[in-house]
Amino acid sequence: MSTLWLVATPIGNLGDLQPRAIEVLAAVDLVCCEDTRRTGQLLRHAGIRANRLAVCNEHTEYELIGELLDLLAAGSSVAVVSDAGSPGISDPGGRLVAAAVDAGHQVSAVPGPSAATMAVTISGLPSGRHVFEGFLPRKGRERAERIAELVDEPRTAVLYEAPHRLQRTLDDLRDACGPDRGVVVSRELTKLHEETVRGTLGAIAVGEPRGEYVLVLAGATAEVVASDAEAV
Ligand code: SAM
Question: So what's the pLDDT on residue 228?
Answer without folding.
Answer: 43
